[in-house]
Each structure stands twice: as C-alpha cells, then as structure tokens.
Design a protein that fits this description.
Length: 155
Amino acid sequence: MNKKGESKLLSLWWLFVLTVVAGVIVISTFIYYNSEIDINSVHSDLLAERIVDCISRDVYLRQEVMNDFDIIENCNLNSKIIEESGNFYFKLIIRGDDFNKDIIAGNRIFEKDCEIKEKVAGEHFPGCSRKSEKLLYNGKFVDIEILTGVNQREK
C-alpha cells in the first residue's frame, strides 16, 4: 500500500485553504482598521442631553441657572476638554418674557460651521445637534435652545 501521492495532494489543498483563510483575516483586519466612522453627531446629541439634564429638574429650569451659573463646573464637564481642546462647542440660549441669557463655551467657530453644514454636506465639519425645550421658570414657560458641536477626528 503506497499512499504517498494522496498525502501530497491533500497537503496542497491544505496549504491552499490555509492561504485563503490567512488572506481573509489580513484583508478584513486592514479594512477594519482603515475605516473612519463619524460619530460626532452622536457625541453632539449626548452633550446636548447632558446639558439639558443638568439645567433642569423634571420640567423646571433650575433657579441657579439664571444667576452666576458656571455650567462647566455644575454639569461636571471637563473644562480642559471643552475649552482647550478645540473639539467641542455649545451654546445655551434661555429666552423668557422678561429676560434673555446665553451661555457659550468651547470653539465658537463651530456655530458658523454648523450653520454651513445644515446647507452643504461636508466631510470635515463638526457633528452638530440643535435641541429645543420648554421649561417652567417662576410659573412661566421659557424657551431653551441648545446648539452643540463636536469635531473629534479619530479612527
């Protein structure tokens, strides 16, 4: 019984299968690590939600927001990341019958970039989120508008 020919044929097929499997692993790893996923819009939505949760209690605007309110400290936002990195922006607008208040932090250029992005599709614009709420303050409804922008470019 001479089976040397069969084992050589089987080893060629085995080598072919191993090469195909290794090639698929290399190609899929290359595709995975070279793809860029833009989740800036999701981060922007999360930042807007965090600010709304911070300034409100149920449907009421917190009283201290209308005084000297340090939104970065009171909302547990990292000032180094918001102010110094240049990758984040938010603008909180509070409008009532007898008062207006704006709180702005971060890279102020993002406000114009977000306006442009609403009209023109672009690859390197920040992910933007605009959120509006109505909250009660001293028995009257006030309009809250939050514009947030995030532009982190990471793979």
